[in-house]
Protein: Ca2+:H+ antiporter
Organism: Mycoplana azooxidifex
Amino acid sequence: MTDPDTMDPVGDALRKERPGIAGLVRKERTLPVAVLTMLAFVAYGDRLSSGLGNPVLLAVLFAWLFGVILMAALSVVRHADELAERLGEPYGTLILTLTITAIEVVAISAVMFHGDNNPTLVRDTLFAVVMIILNGMVGLSLLLGAWRRPQQRHNLQGANAYLGLIVPLATLSLILPEYEPTPSGPAISSAHEAILIFMSIGLYAVFLMLQTGRHKLFFTNHHPSHATTHTPAPTPEHRPSGQPLILHAALLFAYMVPVVYLVDHLARPIDYVVETLRAPMALGGVVMAVLVATPESISAVRAAIADHLQRSVNIFLGSVLSTIGLTIPAMLAISHLSGHSIVLGLGRTETILLVLTLAVSMITFASGRTNVMQGFVHLMLFFTYLLLIVEG
């Protein structure tokens, strides 16, 4: 019989959380799939892409690449979530958003370089990301999170800090260029391009210093002005795994390698569908946006369901801010260096939808509390965006 005095509940819990080599291999079974797929395209990529004229092969190739990249990206998010639990907010969320931003830049660049010059690809992708996150992700998170409780709380100062940068950066990046006369048409001028790059990077750098330093409490549930705010207990899916921190960092990088390589091959079927089959030009941007937004969407929705709305707010508002504040400067620099022109200004219909989305988002996060109705409103705007794509 076991002596109760010798029992170690803490040690038992840690041993249960350390799955060992066999458990780690089972949990990371996506990695060999991603690596083998990458090796297959290293050896036979050109041969596989040469048969895109066959509709069956086109569909199989796209589904294969998209599925593997998405699974690997989800694993990136899983390890970023683990780092978030170990490091605490907002550092973990920063790792997540910066990693996804890197995937986004690589994905857009791959599609832009493979086919004919599509100057609106960057604009379409960024607009799609904003619509998917601020309407689809926010709407679903608020709806499911508030379904079993009257309302959820978040730190108002943090949401205001995010929106205080998102609104001007989105306006200057996606709206103003359409109304700026240039000799080459709607393309952004060189002066505007330089100002936008330095302003976006500068503002984002200042924001990071505030988020990780003086105003760190704005992005948690423990701000003094919210002393009575309910802080939910950790849920099973967010409990630390017990594995070394360096292992999660290494696995995050290991999953990033096949993602970066395979997204270049995913650009080929996308380019074929858009240019050869005459699909809507915005389709390439939507596919890239779905690829980069889905992992964060799943993480944010899970956090909202578990009553961790503050983490959801950090994820979806941080994603939009990093998309505008980092992806746009990166793509402008790549465009300048590669000679591929890009158009950032939205059309009239898209501009109205963007302004409406930003206005509704400010109202949604204005009180520090959210409810089911706000989730429905954001989902309505998301379905409106999908309808515009179909009609286009």
User: Anything to note?
Assistant: The first strand starts at residue 152 and ends at 153. The beta strands are 152-153, 369-370.
